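U., I forgot to send this yesterday:
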Amino acid sequence: MSFNPIPDAAPEELEDIFRTLVDNAFTAIYIIQDWRFAYVNPRTADLLGYSRAELLSGEIPLAQLVAEEDWTLVQTRMRERLAGGAPEARYRFRARRRDGRLLPVQIFSSSISFRGRPALLASLMDLTDLLQMEQHLAEQLHFMEQLLDAIPSPIFYKGMDGRYLGCNQAFAETLGQDKAGIVGRSVYDLAPADLAARYAAADRELLQAGGTQSYETQVQYADGRRRDMHFYKAVFRHQDGEPGGLVGAMLDITRLKRKEAALELAERVFDASSEGILITDADGRILRTNRAFCDMTGYSEAEALGQTPAFIKSGRHDMAFYSALWQQVFLEGRWQGEIWNRRKDGEVYPAWLSISAARNETGQITNFIGISTDISRHKEAEAHINRLAYFDTLTGLPNRALLQDRLDQAIALARASRQGERHVAVMFLNLDRLKHVNDSLGHASGDRVIQIMAERLTGLLGPQVTVSRHVGDQFALIFTELPGSRAAAAMAEQLLQTVQAPVELGEQQFSLTASIGISLFPGDGEDGAALLRNADAALHHAKLASRGSFQFYRDEMNAASLERLVFEQSLRHALERGELELFYQPQFELEGGQLIGMEALLRWRHPDLGLVPPDRFIPLAEETGLIVPIGRWVLQEACRQAAAWSRLFAAPLRMAVNLSATQFVAEDLVGVVRQALEQSGLPPAQLELELTESTLMGNADQATATLRELKGLGVLLAVDDFGTGYSSLAYLRRFPLDTLKIDRSFVLDMERDANAGAITQAVVALGRSLGLITVAEGVETQAQEAILKALHCTVGQGYLFSRPIPAAELESAIGAGRWPLPALPSLP
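Result:
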């Protein structure tokens, strides 16, 4: 460019004006010609730290005034201007001051003609303050980005056109995008069409109305899952007040929605529950009750609110009971058990109650929750079964199970007393020739005779003596106050005379005699089983000697004592010699007739005695402790065989194995079962472990713990010979059982004995109500099978189907298609 004079202005005047403007300019202005300064204004000298004279002297190379790294750039741009390239240039470089300090500057240069020759006119602006401001702004922006990224909730902001201006890291991660990749895109680029339309509509509504906006919708995450989200959005404005776009934050409320749904469901379950539920505060004041509680107690919720649960106390429990109850709740957080309460109408009823303490995050109790079930009907059923299980239906006398229990108690009391102070005598009294009455007058008359004799005996002896109908025409009596054998003999004579008194049945009158066998504790046995066994042996000798007489037990009556010692030694070596083997008795589904499994039964093939029945050697094994290693072998062999058959026949055949009381209390029982399953590869659900009632009730707490461990392995648990022992509903609820096995004595007698039939029916009904499988043992006739089917008994086992047979014989029968096999899966 060239300087053109202003029209009508004198050259001298223009030069003065120009010089004044340039000399006083805030910007550094200079002219370079021939690679040296031709003119510099004062600001240029100040900026570079030199005097104007020094800069105009030409002694300071231009390269000295530029940072070494930037000189190539500056030199290139200057050449371009001087060579007639672009007439103007704007760029940044670092100028070097006299003191060596580098200044960031921005240059604007133009090519001009100065004094008739090419030159560069340039202006420099010190960018130090500007760059500091930019740095500050960049730091502020970085801080804000970090702040936004530190917020866990997704945050975004958009322009008026709906396109994203930015977001935080949480938002980007939600969509599976980079933050930079989101900028400039719209919701239609990032979300499914249905959700994008919802977002866009909400954005338009907010930008038109201004202010804020809050709503719930869904967001699709990067992994494709959709989650519930609450949006909070607001319009942001520029400094001039005009809207610039919107900013939004999202809150994931999926868990909250689920909790709300769960709470709503819990509320419905609470109200619909068949168990009575009440909730109190920490002071025990009732806050909530459900409908079942009101139905159970007769009180409305309004009547219960604000009261303590004491308002339904029955008065049957003392303070010690409630103190122990609440002590357990406070220490362990829970109590459950049987309790008696009172309804609004005054009726007292039994309930199964569970009380739990609810605590907050700090461990403080905030509420108590009580859940109760009216067990009145269960109690009635339990009493009925107890009556059937412990008392003879014909005479009302205790049966064998109750007799054994009372005898055990009598022996325990005798042991606890000082020597010689208490005596226990057991007498077996058998009515001689009652069969003649049955044959001549009929069984009804025979039954009536038994009832008359029961009434005579109880009338003579009173409640202090246990009189039991042991079996058929035989009574068992337990005396605890007889001074010795002479008193026992006198009592036996009195009993014989009582029996011999004439009996009148209608127009018939006749007399009976009896035979009595007597055993005394402790001389004739240390436990109830021995006393009963020896009394029975004495009765047998009395009947052989002379009917209508009595006999005391004598050692010579049991000539097998020596044989027993030899027998025990042989048993000790039976396992290591391979003399033990398993027979298997098949079990069948009664309804469909399918073979569903088998019970493993132990046999001893003695080299001299042949096949020894289990009732001869298993009690001995129990007594000597040999049952533990023998039981371990039985379990391993039964599992191995069951696994082999399951593979061979492709059917989930179940194997039932009996556990003795000694095995059950062994500390390694769970480990032994686990090892047997692992070594054989048998699925746990195909192994059923059978235990007797007495084994379970010996130590109910320990039994519960052991059963739960076994149940944790996945095996099935069965109660064997149900109905002959405790037959308690309480333990059926407590223990994790799967199967009830009805004792063979009830099955064998149920056709001709109403008592046995009633017990069988009650046990099957009980099992069905508790969801348990019922297995009838000892099924020998088709009539028995028909009765069991009518009662809906699940499984049958007995000689009607098959006797216990060796493994090879059973395998051959299955292979020949003798019995249908179940399709997968088997019975539950």
